């Protein structure tokens, strides 16, 4: 894939997923906007507000002036407080106001992406106030695909409208999450040198991956099959996603092998804040 194709693939995946969000929420009755999601403290309205807020910030829009209530129990740190402010600001917005702002934001961001860099290594900045940081443009796009698609799935589960579990954004999200597996197994779970851990994932997006810990204690992930792994997890793709993103109580996970090591791996499996 050329540099231009890489950037365009991320833009296309982002577009498909955020337009799916727009289609999901456009016909919702008023009460559906208040349904809780698996994001702690956030309703359907709040997730959509978060999507609007981040994309607006990437467009350079000023953050709203607003004071957060002091009784929001799901606020556990300064980053959460930063993300919550534009969400809380929109809690009084009506359904038409929400869908109108979302559609307008999608139009503006789509135009900005079409006119943006084509070089995946071009310098970019994630504008998050005191949490802002610099990164290559392709990495920024991949993060946005990941965030938008995960929140699309949050909304789908809350509304009981499954779909897009094997979309282009789902594949990008899978690969992004797999990058964190060596850290989960080797560092967070403390798997000893020589350990092999397999993940057999079924469902709309099937894959098999093995994490191997080398003599230096470093983990790596590959697609080869290990005939006798120390631990093997068998689970469906949506369960894997929910575990990796810290969402609720996922479905069943079949575990074979070292149960104690498996428990440590699952305890540190969530890669999102």
From TrEMBL:
Residues 15-156 form the Mycothiol-dependent maleylpyruvate isomerase metal-binding domain. Residues 181-264 form the MDMPI C-terminal domain. It holds the Pfam family MDMPI_N. The keyword Isomerase applies. InterPro entries: DinB/YfiT-like (IPR034660), Maleyloyr_isom (IPR017517), MDMPI_C-term_domain (IPR010872), MDMPI_metal-binding (IPR024344). GO terms for molecular function: isomerase activity. SUPFAM superfamilies: DinB/YfiT-like putative metalloenzymes. It comes from Kitasatospora kazusensis. Keywords: Isomerase. This is Maleylpyruvate isomerase family mycothiol-dependent enzyme. NCBIfam families: maleylpyruvate isomerase family mycothiol-dependent enzyme.
């Amino acid at each position: 894939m050329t540099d231009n194709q890489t950037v365009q693939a991320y833009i296309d995946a982002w577009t498909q997923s955020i337009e799916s969000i727009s289609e999901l929420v456009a016909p919702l009755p008023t009460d559906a906007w208040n349904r809780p999601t698996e994001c702690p403290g956030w309703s359907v309205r709040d997730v959509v507000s978060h999507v609007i807020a981040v994309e607006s910030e990437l467009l350079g829009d000023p953050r709203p002036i607003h004071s957060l209530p002091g009784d929001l129990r799901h606020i556990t740190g300064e980053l959460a407080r930063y993300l919550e402010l534009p969400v809380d600001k929109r809690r009084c917005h009506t359904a038409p106001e929400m869908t109108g702002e979302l559609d307008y934001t999608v139009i503006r961001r789509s135009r900005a992406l079409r006119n943006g860099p084509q070089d995946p290594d071009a310098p970019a900045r994630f504008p998050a106030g005191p949490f802002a940081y610099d990164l290559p443009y392709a990495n920024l796009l991949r993060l946005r695909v990941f965030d938008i698609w995960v929140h699309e799935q949050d909304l789908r589960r809350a509304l009981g409208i499954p779909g897009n579990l094997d979309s282009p954004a789902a594949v990008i999200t899978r690969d992004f999450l797999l990058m964190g597996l060596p850290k989960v197994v080797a560092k967070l779970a403390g798997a000893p040198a020589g350990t092999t851990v397999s993940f057999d994932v079924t469902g709309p997006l099937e894959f098999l991956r093995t994490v191997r810990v080398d003599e230096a204690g470093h983990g790596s992930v590959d697609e080869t099959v290990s005939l006798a792994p120390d631990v093997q997890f068998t689970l469906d793709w949506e369960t894997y996603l929910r575990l990796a993103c810290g969402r609720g109580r996922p479905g069943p996970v079949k575990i074979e092998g070292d149960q104690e090591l498996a428990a440590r791996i699952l305890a540190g499996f969530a890669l999102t804040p």
